[in-house]
Design brief:
It is found in: Nucleus. The strands form two sheets. Strands 1-4-5-6-7 form a five-stranded antiparallel sheet, with no helix packed on it. The protein is built from eight helices and eight strands. Helix 1 packs across helix 2 (133-164). It has helices spanning 110-131, 133-164, 169-216, 232-235, 246-251, 273-276, 292-295, 306-322; strands at residues 31-36, 41-43, 49-50, 55-68, 71-79, 86-92, 97-102, 104-106. Among the domains are: 31-108, no CATH class; 115-165; 168-207.
Length: 323
């Protein structure tokens, strides 16, 4: 079996390559290539800016009758991204750049123009020196004089900087270190002062609260308890014991006051009718002063029952019997 991937092909002995028909293509044939914009440009039709690096599907062709040192020059056709107007530019192998041809304007580039101006001046000078030896001597003298002036100016600037702007890096670092230490020390002192002030304020507040609590809850001085007199029981007079009846033991004393008797308000006696009529009342006869109880006998209780009156009578009999 033959190989699947053939590297060598068979040529018969009577093979003549001149008999192979050649494909005839036009010299100005165009190819479709993918490229990026080589520089910033602006469309002349709509004013759209096309920046460097934007990708296009361009048509490429070889420029006829234009060759630089045997290198062909190519032309590219692209379309504006906004109005689809055709823009053309071609290669410039002499300056290793591209040249705008039609449909757009290349944005201003100061660096490129400066380089072109320098090249033009240098070329003119070389042309002058080529046929005029005196011009060569003059140019060399001017260059040496200009170089000496530049060196003198540079030396003056160095001396001026050394006199006026002498920089001691060690001193700068030392000053920075000292200022940093001073700043830290000041911060530490401020912190200590604030801490001491807070502690003093809290201590004063605590003392004030303690004094207020002592004033509010002052202890009452203890008084010595009175010592009982051992012979005081002998000086007391014995109280007469009342005879307690059997029926009183069961139902209680009739003459005792009920516990709710204080809640009853006794109405006061009306004023003397003689005084109300406007007649003067006779003055009481002079005599020995009477006690308050005898002068003002207690008015009878309006709600007293017969049982209470009987109990009071029995109490009076017991007291008389004991006497």
């Amino acid at each position: 079996m033959s190989e699947r991937k053939v590297l060598n092909k068979y040529y018969p002995p009577d093979f003549d390559p001149s008999k192979i028909p050649k494909l005839k293509l036009p010299k100005d044939r165009q190819y479709v290539v993918r490229l990026m914009a080589p520089f910033n440009m602006r469309c002349k039709t709509c004013g759209e800016y096309i920046y460097k690096g934007k990708k296009f599907n361009a048509r490429k062709e070889t420029v006829q009758n234009e060759v630089y040192l045997g290198l062909p020059i190519f032309r590219f056709y692209i379309k504006c991204t906004r109005c689809l107007a055709e823009i053309t530019f071609k290669t410039d192998p002499e300056n290793t750049d591209y040249t705008m041809e039609h449909g757009a304007t290349r944005n201003f580039q100061a660096e490129k123009l400066l380089e072109e101006e320098e090249k033009r001046v240098q070329k003119e000078r070389e042309d002058e020196e080529l046929n005029n030896p005196m011009k060569v001597l003059e140019n060399r003298t001017k260059d040496s004089k200009l170089e000496m002036e530049v060196l003198e100016n540079l030396q003056e600037l160095k001396d001026l900087n050394q006199r006026q702007a002498h920089v001691d890096f060690e001193a700068m670092l030392r000053q920075h270190r000292l200022s940093e230490e001073e700043r830290r020390r000041q911060e530490q002192e401020e912190d200590e002062r604030e801490t001491a002030a807070l502690l003093e304020e809290s201590r004063k507040r605590r003392l004030l609260e303690d004094s207020d609590s002592e004033d509010e809850a002052a202890p009452v001085p203890l008084q010595p308890a009175p010592r009982p007199n051992p012979t005081a029981i002998l000086d007391e007079t014995p109280k007469p014991k009342r005879k307690v009846e059997i029926w009183e033991q069961s139902i209680g004393s009739l003459g005792s006051r009920p516990p709710l008797s204080g809640l009853v308000v006794v109405k006061k006696a009306k004023a003397n009718p003689d005084r109300s009529n406007g007649q003067p009342q006779a003055a009481p006869a002079p005599g020995p002063p009477q006690s308050r109880k005898e002068a003002d006998p207690a008015p009878p209780t309006p709600g007293a029952s017969s049982l209470s009156q009987l109990g009071a009578y029995l109490d009076s009999d017991d007291s008389n019997g004991s006497n």
